[in-house]
Write a structure and sequence with these properties.
By secondary structure, the chain is α/β, with parallel strands linked by helices. The chain has a single domain (about 5-210), classed as TIM Barrel. Helix content is about 35%, strand content about 20%. The protein is built from eight helices and eight strands. The chain has helices at about 15-25, 45-55, 75-80, 95-105, 150-160, 180-185, 195-200, 205-210; strands at about 1-5, 30-35, 60-65, 80-85, 105-110, 130-135, 170, 190-195. The chain has an eight-stranded parallel sheet. The model has no long low-confidence stretch (mean pLDDT about 100). The structure holds D-xylitol-5-phosphate and zinc ion (ZN). D-xylitol-5-phosphate binds near residues 8, 141, 173, 192 and 193.
């Protein structure tokens, strides 16, 4: 599956960009919320998620790169999130946060920074709808894919298999046609891609290619 990230879309014509994604082969739409504390960058927050939700005809896959995500779970549900992913590194009580996300009717995801071992999720994997493996250090679009994360994707897939969990494995950062096949082969179910799609001459066509590598 493919979850295009709008981080590098043209926000001046956001409606057009979302309409383009509606018509495309994208399975969901990835929204990167950054707080300037958990990550060095600030992106956008609830009003933009709400605006996208009004136009989007695909599920919103919201990736929270922020401290204290537990304070805003209901707000993001009301804004239209279908998947809500929080970072393990930002949660002292991850199991209670994911429980809260699910109890509000959303799919719950946990994200791992490149340096955080997959084994940290060993005891909770069965509770997760989604495990997001970051393949760059979060904060910015357009970074280079970190090669050692391929092994982490394999480990995440292996953990899901061993525990018979139906958790989807999502991979985010530096994905393009150059590495998509390898990332799928390592065990990813969902690829997130931003700059590769939005900087291409024909984003819809590029997405089709990404899905069929
Ligand atoms: C990075 C974000 C990503 C980013 C991906 O912090 O979580 O979702 O938008 O962008 P690319 O595909 O350009 O690496
Ligand atoms: Zn993301």
């Amino acid at each position: 599956m493919l979850s295009p990230s709008i981080l590098t879309a043209n926000f001046g014509v956001l409606q057009q960009e979302i309409e383009m994604l509606n018509e495309s082969c994208a399975d969901m739409i990835h929204l990167d919320v950054m707080d300037g504390t958990f990550v060095p960058n600030i992106s956008f927050g609830l009003p933009v998620v709400k605006a996208v939700a009004r136009i989007a005809r695909k599920p919103l896959d919201v990736h929270l790169m922020m401290i204290h995500p537990e304070k805003y779970i209901e707000d993001f549900r009301d804004a239209g999130a279908a998947f809500l992913t929080v970072h393990l590194e930002a949660c002292s009580h991850l199991a209670s946060v994911t429980e809260q996300i699910k109890s509000l009717g959303m799919k719950a995801g946990a994200a791992l920074n490149p340096h955080t071992p997959v084994a940290m999720l060993e005891d909770i994997i069965g509770e997760l709808d989604l495990l997001l493996v970051m393949s760059v250090n979060p904060g910015f679009g357009g970074q280079r894919f970190i090669p050692f994360t391929i092994e982490k994707i394999r480990r995440a897939r292996e953990l899901a298999r061993r525990t018979r969990s139906e958790t989807l494995i999502e991979v985010d950062g530096g994905i393009s046609l150059d590495n998509a096949a390898e990332v799928y082969a390592a065990g990813a179910d969902i690829l997130v891609a931003g700059s590769a799609i939005f900087s291409s001459d024909n984003p819809a066509d590029y997405m089709k290619k990404l899905k069929t590598v």
